[in-house]
Amino acid sequence: MTEGSGFTSNPERQQARSMSVETQAAKFVEARSAAIGFPDYPGPLPADLDQAYAVQSAEIGQWADRIAGWKVGRIAPPLVETFGEDRFVGPIFAATVLSAGAANDFAAIENGFSAFEAELVIVASADAPAGKTDWTADEAADLAGAMHIAVEVAGGPFAAANDLGPLTTIASFGGNNGLILGAGIADWRALSFDAIRCTTTIDGAVAGEAAASAIPGTPIAALAFALARTARMGRSIRKGDLISTGAITGVHVVRIGQRCTADFGAFGAIACTVVKAAPRG
After folding, report:
1. Which of 175, 87, 192 is nearest to 135 (CA)?
2. What is the CATH number of the domain that holds 236?
3. Which of 3, 63, 185, 265 could serve as a FRET partner for 118 with CA atoms 20 to 30 Å apart?
């Protein structure tokens, strides 16, 4: 602040904003590490995509694990015109990727936000070309390797992230807390996405049912978005990265103790019990 001026100079404002971003990120990192939720956003709410992704980028820098892939979430139609994008991404860290078994733990942060999401995961077959920031679905399809059924362990420590819209979700590690990777879908290119259907049940009751074609533009469009967005963030997708392409049957809020299943019929099922997330050392 310049004495007597009543305003802060641009460099001072930029420094304050940067410190705020790092401080916000540190709160998310600390809470996620301790597996303890919190009710209030730690600072001013992000006003746009740039601010939200700045917090996410700071979180990535402070988190001691490598990125194994990216989740893709949707921005609701009323907000697409406001933000200029219809999807968002968040990092999936290597230590949180689990191979599905007969029974699986779905780790929920106590007093945070948790949602069970049935998804298809596409494995990148090669590194994305350096500097390429615009992708069509056809171009993305050329980089698509194996496809798997999966459950995204969606959520994080900030309890109200989903209530306040996509910006706070982006700023909360992109709303990802892990991935349970199921069976591969053989010869998926020969199939229609209408033929890949999923039924999600929670405590035995059907919570949602849909085909993979319910993903706008199909999961390949989600991959194309992830390729473009991560490139613009300076974190281009690499060979072997897992791209979780969006919730097929919906975003199903869950609580500790519930039993949830994503049943993809002939392609397999993933059964989970929601358990209290353990602290991460």
Report:
1. 87
2. 3.90.850.10
3. 63
Cα 109 to Cα 114: distance, rounded to the nearest angstrom: 7
CA-based end-to-end distance of the chain: 40
Residue 131 lies in a domain: yes
Answer yes or no: are the C-beta atoms of 125 and 238 closer than 8 Å.
no
Any domain includes 4: no
**Separation between Cα atoms, residue 85 and residue 49, nearest integer Å:** 9
The total number of structural domains in the chain stands at: 1
- Tokens coding 15: 């420094």
Q: How far apart are CA 168 and CA 125, in angstroms?
A: 31
pTM for the predicted model, two decimal places: 0.93
Print the domain residue range for 62.
10-276
The 10s digit of each residue's pLDDT in 69-78 is 999 999 999 9
Kindly state whether residue 167 falls inside one of the protein's structural domains.
Answer: yes
Q: What is the pLDDT of residues 112-132, one digit of tens each?
A: 999 999 999 999 999 999 899
pLDDT digits (tens, 9 = 90+) for 184-224: 999 999 999 999 999 999 999 999 999 999 999 999 999 99
Task: Name the token pair of 61.
Answer: 């820098």
Q: Which of 64, 63, 169 is nearest to 115 (CA)?
A: 169
Contact call for residues 137 and 224 (beta carbons, < 8 A): yes
Residues making up the chain, counted from first to last:
281
